[in-house]
Amino acid sequence: GDDYLYIRIANLKDKGGDDIYLHLNDMTMGEGIYNIGQSNGEYYMSAANNQQVIVHTFDGVNLGKTYYSGANAGTIKITRWDYTNGILSGIFNLEVYNKDNPTEKIQIANGRFDIGIGTLNH
Question: What is the pTM of this model?
């Protein structure tokens, strides 16, 4: 479809686990490479009008640091988008910066997701 896609990848096993938010504002292309741009720090429909990523790190109890994608931060490659069967797969490679200290950066290489949309809420 052409609506936005929002994926939260989270460590829910550990209390206060880290998480990554992938926001694709336009899925018109379906399978392909989406360039990640500057994050505005907002979520869902208030998010930037481009692909963006937000990362949260936790210290086990409290929110530790928040990282945003910058201009030309990397890519999200949708490798499978089977709308009929509800299957979405992709790989992402990017760099994010600490919102409070922009010189501090994190590289994420070969991040991957494989989602069966029909079983998410079961």
Answer: 0.85
